[in-house]
Design brief:
Helix content is 70%, strand content 3%. With 247 residues, the protein is mainly α.
């Protein structure tokens, strides 16, 4: 039999896979809507003419995918699917220390291009959201420099990551947002490392009474002014954080 003929053979799908696909399709096409309680294991077993273990296995897979949730003492419900939360849960399977070294290259490819689109497409509302995110980061940084704490540091890392996510959202290109979500957890780890060094640098400058430029604010202003050259320069300094530390 040729490879072509082999590929044309109809493959039988295991029963448990059929149940899983049918349940997933019921969610995908809206027969089971978000927030709706699905039939019980007994009811589904009867519907599919399979045993309860087969149904339970399919349900657990869908729960793991973030499509279903079990409410104790109540039943199983369809969840509002979030692509971002799904990627965040999956990130532990593809993230590793060796990838941290690749973050800068990835940020150049994704974030700077997203910022170029933001310069073109950002609405007034997008810019205000960016400015609010920028102000939140600045306030947290000020609080930390006055009274360092681990909780404040974690909030700064989150605020920094969130600012860059909003740049991607302001590009009005969903693929950039999805790409960011795929590496958001890795970026969070990277920013955690970078900010530890950067905050020490800012502390030293603060003690000397020396000013420093807030690059987030510069990026916001550049997007407002439709000035990609200024935006790119500031964003490059954000990514190549050692440039700032060596000044």
């Amino acid at each position: 039999m040729s490879a072509f003929e082999e590929g044309m053979k109809v493959k039988r799908m295991p029963v448990n896979e059929q149940v899983f696909e049918n349940m997933k399709e019921a969610i995908k096409n809206g027969r089971w809507k978000a927030g709706e309680k699905i039939p019980s294991e007994i009811e589904l077993s009867s519907m599919f003419d399979v045993n309860r273990l087969t149904v339970r296995t399919a349900m657990q897979r869908l729960i793991g995918m973030g499509l279903l949730e079990t409410r104790v003492g109540d039943g199983t419900y369809v969840k509002e699917f979030s692509f971002g939360s799904y990627l965040e849960r999956a990130s532990e399977f593809y993230l590793g220390p060796e990838l941290l070294d690749k973050v800068c290259e990835f940020r150049y490819a994704i974030e700077i291009e997203a910022s170029r689109l933001a310069v073109v497409h950002a609405t007034e509302q997008d810019i205000r959201i960016l400015e609010d995110a920028c102000e939140k980061f600045e306030n947290l940084k000020r609080d930390y420099l006055e009274q360092p704490s681990e909780d404040t540091f974690k909030e700064i890392v989150k605020a920094d990551t969130d600012f860059h996510k909003k740049i991607c959202e302001a590009s009005h290109n969903d693929l950039f947002v999805y790409a960011f979500l795929m590496f958001q957890e890795l970026l969070n780890q990277y920013i955690h490392i970078v900010l530890q060094e950067r905050l020490e640098y800012w502390k030293k400058r603060k003690k000397k009474g020396e000013p420093w430029s807030d690059l987030h604010r510069v990026i916001c202003m550049a997007i407002r002014n439709h000035d990609f050259d200024a935006c790119k320069r500031a964003y490059t300094d954000v990514i190549d954080y050692k440039i700032d530390l060596e000044k």
